[in-house]
Amino acid sequence: MKKIYETNEWKGRGSGKHYYHNEYRQEDDKVVKYKCHRGKNFDGNESEWVEDEKVVDSWDVDSPDMPDWLRNKL
Q1: Model-wide pTM > 0.70
Q2: List of E strands, the chain
Q3: What is the mean pLDDT of each run of 10 residues along the chain (74 residues)?
Q4: What is the pLDDT of residue 12?
Q5: For residue 16, what pLDDT is reported?
Q6: What are phi and psi of 70, to 5 degrees?
Q7: Which residues pair with 57 in a beta bridge?
Q8: What is the b/e burial string over 27-54, where b = at least 16 CB atoms within 10 angstroms of the residue's CB?
Q9: Are 31 and 4 in contact (CB under 8 A)?
């Protein structure tokens, strides 16, 4: 896995501390877009940062559907 590009972080809507960014990673012969999230959970005593990510899109390395700006980063 090789990180190709990471977007600037943005704040989520609503109350609480939730932040998001996208990461584009090359995984073998695919480029995968992840939406990454980190949020602060309060359990009554202590705040804890929790992080997760999910796949939102992917392309084969030679796919004509991959955005040009992303292909130029390979």
Answers
A1: yes
A2: 2-6, 10-11, 17-27, 30-42, 47-60
A3: 95 82 97 95 80 97 96 94
A4: 87
A5: 67
A6: -75, -40
A7: 33
A8: eeeebbbbebebeeeeeeeeeeeeeeee
A9: yes
d(CA 20, CA 29): 26
Question: Six-digit token pair at 54?
Answer: 């999910």
Q: In whole angstroms, give the CA distance from residue 44 to residue 3.
A: 36
Question: Cα(first)–Cα(last) distance of the chain, in Å?
Answer: 13
Both tokens of 4, joined, read 């190709």
For residue 15, what pLDDT is reported?
A: 66
What is the rounded CA–CA span in Å between residue 71 and residue 42?
Answer: 41
Query: Contact 8/21 with Cβ under 8 angstroms?
Result: yes
pLDDT value for 52: 96
